[in-house]
Amino acid sequence: MTCIQRLLPSAIIAAVGVWVAYISYTQEPADAFLFPRLIAAGFVMLAVWDLACNLLGASVPAPGMDATAALNLAPGMLVLLIYIFWGAKALGFYTATTIAVLTIQLLYDPAPRHLFRAWGRRCLITATFVAVMYGLFAKLLGVYTPKEFFH
User: How many Cα atoms sit within 13 Å of 71 on the Cβ side?
Assistant: First the structure.
């Protein structure tokens, strides 16, 4: 693997980390961005560490992704991009999260769609995930999320 193949992804990830950190530290109200600031700072530290390891040649490159793996990931990535750039603002954080988590399970869960038990499990996982997100953001951290469209 050439130097560019190792350094370019690390540099891009570090740049995205710095951009996310910059955005989270310059937005108002400051209280709403406490959690993103913590995550962004950790993200930047890990990204810069990875970049430094690649510059020094201390990292072991992972094998590349083949076309089959990329095609398997594409539907989930599309759901996440729609969620990030449109869903959370248009539908509200918790509604969009519910739809995204359930959709990703439908895409990747190998259980047959006609089984009631599989649907029960999917709904339970989705409800639990959204409840944990609500407890974390609204109750524990007290941060703002995009408003629901029902308001």
Answer: 3
